[in-house]
């Protein structure tokens, strides 16, 4: 648990604080402040991977842009994590159907090419089919005219209470 301080761990393990600090140093575990900062930065990735919607024709199509940065990359690389690209695509798919709440029933996705920090990702969505309260939305994401991602999302509206 990254939220436990050395003193709390020492008490829970019935050892001294210096033992906890020694073990943490030996195992390469960051101190409390750094662990909290790391958890907070990881949480921000999900929030920052939504992009900015530039054009939206409800129930038809949409365009969105995402400026990538180092918070979205794998440690020690400039390669954008797939979860950020997926979140960007899913957000546009949900936006184009104007859903207060919807679930992704099925997603068929393909990562075609890696994206790098500093690149602008451009996503284009198209509503391909509407059937029984569900939607099939295709999303294609490009960086520098190269296709990075493509996916089809089967979305189902849910009741909002």
Automatic annotation (TrEMBL):
This is Fatty acid biosynthesis transcriptional regulator. Coiled coil: none annotated. SUPFAM superfamilies: Thioesterase/thiol ester dehydrase-isomerase (SSF54637). The lineage of its organism: unclassified sequences, metagenomes, organismal metagenomes.
